Please model this.
Amino acid sequence: MLPERTGYIIWVSDLKAARTLEKYGTVHYMSRRMHYVAMYFNAERADDTIRQISKLPFVRKTERSYRNELKTEYSKDTEDKTRMYSL
Model:
């Protein structure tokens, strides 16, 4: 079974040095223009990992991603109006 993962956004000052973040978790995306890295960690060890990453000299700020807490199941409460406008 796959472990529970938590996403984090890490704002960096040097993208070349940010490549070393791969040893802490899975790097999903690195933005060259906005200088941030989207990463995933194991949820059990995320706090310890973020403490270690925050101490790195090129890391400016870390933010937790709330993507897994968003509602992704949608319901259609209104009726479909496309039937009224069909020819």
About this structure: The first strand starts at residue 5 and ends at 12.
